[in-house]
Amino acid sequence: MELHPPQAVREIARRLEDAGFETWAVGGAVRDAVLGLPVGDWDLTSRARPEEVRRLFRRTVPIGVEHGTVGVLGRDGVLYEVTTFRRDVETFGRHAVVAFADTVDEDLSRRDFTCNALAWHPLTGELRDPFEGLRDLRAGILRTVGRPEERFAEDYLRVLRALRFAGHFELAIEPATWRALVEATPMLPRLSAERIREELWKILSKTRRASASLSLYAASGALAVLYPELDATIGVVRGGGVRPDAWTESLLAVDALPPTRPLLRMAALLHAVGMPAARSRDLRGGWRYTGHEVLGGRAAAKVMRRLKASNADIERVARLVTHQSDIFPPDAPDAGIRRWIHDLGADLIYDLFRLRFALARAEVDGAGEPPRDLIERWRRAHAVMLSHPPLAVRDLAVGGDDLKALGIPPGPRYGEILRGLLERVLENPELNTRDALLALVAEEVQR
Asked: How big, in percent rounded to 5, are the helix, strand and coil portions of the chain?
């Protein structure tokens, strides 16, 4: 079987083989190549020990020598990981005690799922498939290598990996594997926040139809264990029951956004987390969710902090959730749009509209076009943004030095004067010239 790896993969394998060390390509690259999908990183496994790999290659990086992994810099400038064959000695929960092995089959036997227990020889083209992973892939099945209870107990992250793989590759989880997976979900909090976040991030950033994996999170109980705020949105309806429930709308909105914008997809996923707390009865006996956006922004920040996201990512997602409904009215004048952009922050505007478009599509089961008035407001906001109006004090044509030159003593009044000028400029951007603003300042000082 020919899988067409980079030439550097063959060169590294040939040098190892010529030195007497059996070497295979393994992991996701082999799986994806077999499926005819775009291939990411090519990894190699070899009988060579780390010190032997470093002796054979001049340019190496000790990525994880204690675990048998050495990075080898290929002639194409790409770093390829070469890991010594390994076998499990003892496994427990999150960590495993491993020893170096002598055969690739021993190494494959410790892999998580049959579709990942494939090895391909870069020189001979042989595909090694001791657990019939290729058959499972062709049948659309995800199955563990060996007993699923043992596989998940070895590392509970495999529960989340199973949900991600099943959704991403459109695989049905084999019944015994599913039962063991569900039974293992209560153990997920034992995983570090970073590992949990990384799995969710891979879904949001790599899977076009992320809802497939996220739906499995809900069905398996993983959502309730790791993201109770999201689990609480299941069954929460608005609009007289005509629209999908809040959880379904969140999934549809995520799918309406591209994987290249994972933070925006995260905001779409979390957009309704404030609804359960904001729910109250309206005069007609239905439900209303007044103020859920602000509550949702706080809840979204809490989720992101629990996942140990960066402060910048936490702030951005929370702002998008908080302001998801804050769009200027259709009849707003240009000055009103400029003030709206100033209040929300110019950095948020485009993503806010992208989120609104995704949510509008989600309201009708992901089909159809956004409302015309929303499209028109987007066009108007875009036109204002393209005119690059002054939106902050730093955009003014004058600053503190100019005020000082007028003889105004430094102090808090500088800020008051500049903010007052900004108000005038937001109303009329043509005033943003040095002469016009200094004339306004002189007029104010003389009063």
From this structure: 55, 10, 35
pLDDT digits (tens, 9 = 90+) for 334-389: 999 999 999 999 999 999 999 999 999 998 766 667 789 999 999 999 999 999 99
Instruction: Give the strand pairing for 127-128 and 23-26.
Output: unpaired
Task: Judge whether 309 and 284 are in contact, CB under 8 Å.
Answer: no
- Chain center to CA of 7: 31
Task: Please state the domain count of the chain.
Answer: 3
168 to 260, 292, 378: CA distances (angstroms): 15, 31, 32
Does this model's pTM top 0.85? My answer is: yes
User: At 95, is the pLDDT very low, low, confident or very high (cuts 50, 70, 90)?
Assistant: low
Contact 84, 47 (CB under 8 A): yes
Tell me if 56 sits within 8 A of 48, measured CB to CB.
Answer: yes
Provide the residue range defining the domain that includes 40: 7-191
CATH number at residue 311: 1.10.3210
- Does 12 share its domain with 152? yes
Task: Collect all residues with Cβ–Cβ distance below 8 Å to 179 and sequence separation of at least 6.
Answer: 148
Residues 6+ apart with CB under 8 A from 36: none
Same domain, 313 and 228: yes
